[in-house]
Amino acid sequence: MGGYQMILILLVTILFSTLIITSYDTLFDQTQFAYYETYNLQGIKVADKQFQKIESEFLGNIYSFSDLNSAYSDYSDSLTVNDVTYNYHIEASYCDSTGHDVGGSSSYQRFDVRIWAKPATSDTVYIGTSANPLSMMLTDMGL
Description:
Strands 1, 2, 3, 4 and 5 form a 5-stranded antiparallel beta sheet that branches. The chain has helices at about 5-60, 65-70; strands spanning about 75-80, 85-95, 110-115, 125, 135-140. It is built from 2 helices and 5 strands. It is rod-shaped. With about 140 residues, it is of the alpha+beta class. The model has no long low-confidence stretch (mean pLDDT about 90). Helices cover about 45% and strands about 25% of the residues.
């Protein structure tokens, strides 16, 4: 085997190794994206569960409209789903019909939820932040 053939075999080996490493790295990245989106979707479902709980407490006359603001003005808890703990924080505030804070009492309330989770295989996942929380508005319909 000549020197030319040895260099050619060495270059082919380097090219093949680079392709394999790049392929595995890309597959790993895609898997991480899929897991991240799964955690994100589960966090949104946790927020929806909390919103439904607030609505049912109001519609079922468990809490009055003003009592909801007191109960959820600074509420924190957690929920574990598939061995991942989703920590959530709910803040209630009176607002106008467009969702802007009014400071005092009004016929509308906005409930903001921020969620974070730390899966074992991933970085911390944030669903809703202080600047952009998941929100729901509720109006006092005189029930």
